[in-house]
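Please, structure for the following, as C-alpha cells.
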Amino acid sequence: GHTLFYDIIDYEQKYVRLVPEFDDDDNYDTPPAGDLIIPGEVEFEGETYSVISIESSCFRRCTKITSVIVQEGIKSIESNAFGDCSKIKNIVLPNSLEELDYPFVFCTSLQSITLSNSLTTICNGLFWGCESLESVVIPNSVTSMGTSVFYLCANLKSVTLPEGITKLKQSTFAKCNNLSSVNIPSTVTSIGMEA
C-alpha cells in the first residue's frame, strides 16, 4: 500500500527511474514497510512506462522493509539504494538487472539473495556489512569482481564463485570469521591482499 515515486527520464522511449520520497529533512513522510515489490512498469496519464533504474539512497534507512522483489525490466540499482535497511531478510533481483553499485551496504538481516544472470560485474563492497548472509552463489555471467565484496559478512559460511573470473581482489572475504567453504575456479590467477 505504499506509494512509490518516479522521474520520467525519457519521454520518447517511455523510461522512468524510481526515486525517494523525501520531506524537508531528507526522510520519508511514510516510510515503506513489510514486503516491497518494485514493478517493472508503471502507468501515468494513460501511458505505460518502463522502470529501468532505482536511484541512489532510494530506500536508505527504511528499517521496516522486510523483503524486496525487483521485477523484470529494471537494469540498474544505484549506490546505497537499500543501505542500512536493517530488517531486509530476502532480496530477489530480475534477470534484466545489469548493474549494481553497492546498494546493500549494512543490510544486517539479509539472509538470502537471488542475483541476476545478466550481471557481468560485482561492484566493490556489494555485501559490505551484511552480517546475517550465510551463503551466496555468484552467477556464471560474472567475469569481474570488485574489492571488499563480502567485507564484514561475519556469518558467511560458503560462496560459489563463477567460472571465468581471473582475480580475487583486496579484502574480498576480509572479516568473514565463519567462512568455511569457497569454490575458487581454476581461472583465478591472482589473489589480492587480505582477500
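The chain has a mean pLDDT of 94. The longest strand covers residues 47-54.
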